[in-house]
Design goal:
Rossmann fold; 10-stranded mixed beta sheet; 3-stranded mixed beta sheet
């Protein structure tokens, strides 16, 4: 169906009116911005993890030091995109949204990164939930698993990240393991919260099976004779757990129990 010249005229006129109205609206609101002065910078943390890697005072200071402080400036001179770009360069910050409100406030919504564990050694830093390295927070302290020893960046963001993810999903081990130590050959020692024995895990391979074996031992063995009878528990051998006796406690144990717990065949549990 062909459109007449009159039809084309009215269509063109309608489009022109819409474009003109939009232009007028934008001009109107922009013109109003001339008279609006920023009365307040409202900083809000949108994450719900009860952590503070960076404080509101530090955020305000960063903005001020870069001559982007909006307080007392007209809305027309405030560039919210510049504030967003500035703050996103901070390694503690994951997302930023900055916008103007009709009441004369600049609303700044911050989502912080979430630390998953801390590396404490020659270097000290967090690994966050997206495998990114972030510096230690000077604003606040909070509990995350501690990893020390010989830890490279790639090892921390790779195998160690996967291991800690496994621990977090297991209620027993998440509550039991207090610290992880990486030896020079990249084998692992675990420091438990309960008991004095160091748990030697070996390399980060088949750790699901190794820790499940130890869990069975905890339930069926250590609950009977106690958890403080040994100073080292070795999980590196297949289907076997080797326990090194704590000599200070040895005299308190019946001989038959000590001998039976010295090396345990898991197939018999």
């Amino acid at each position: 169906m062909k459109i007449s010249k009159i039809g084309i005229f009215f269509i063109s006129l309608f489009i022109s009116l819409i474009v003109g109205y939009m232009g007028y609206t934008i001009w109107c609101f922009s013109d109003k911005d001339k008279d609006v002065v920023c009365k307040e910078l409202n900083i809000v943390f949108t994450d719900k993890f009860n952590i503070e890697l960076i404080s509101k005072a530090e955020i305000s200071k960063i903005i001020e030091n870069n001559e982007l402080n909006p307080l007392g400036s007209s809305f027309r001179k405030i560039h919210t995109e510049s504030i967003e770009d500035l703050l996103l360069r901070n390694p503690m910050i994951k997302k930023v949204e900055c916008y103007k409100t009709p009441s004369g406030k600049i609303q700044l919504e911050i989502e912080q990164r979430r630390p998953k564990f801390i590396i404490a050694g020659h270097e000290c830093y967090y690994i966050d939930t997206e495998r990114k390295l972030i510096p230690i927070s000077l604003s606040n302290s909070f509990y995350v698993p501690v990893v020390s020893g010989r830890v490279t960046h790639s090892f921390a963001k790779g195998k160690m990240f996967d291991f800690i993810s496994f621990i977090e999903k297991n209620p027993f081990w998440n509550a039991q393991i207090e610290q992880i130590y990486v030896l020079d050959d990249l084998s692992i020692e675990l420091i438990p919260r309960v008991g004095d024995a160091v748990i030697y895990l070996g390399k980060l391979e088949n750790y699901e099976v190794k820790l499940n074996n130890l869990y069975q031992l905890y339930k069926q063995g250590f609950n009977v004779i106690g958890w403080n009878r040994f100073k080292r528990i070795d999980l590196q051998y297949k289907n076997q757990i080797v326990c090194l006796k704590n000599e200070a406690e040895l005299k308190k144990l019946p001989v038959d129990i000590v001998q039976s717990m010295d090396s345990i065949d898991l197939k018999k549990l």
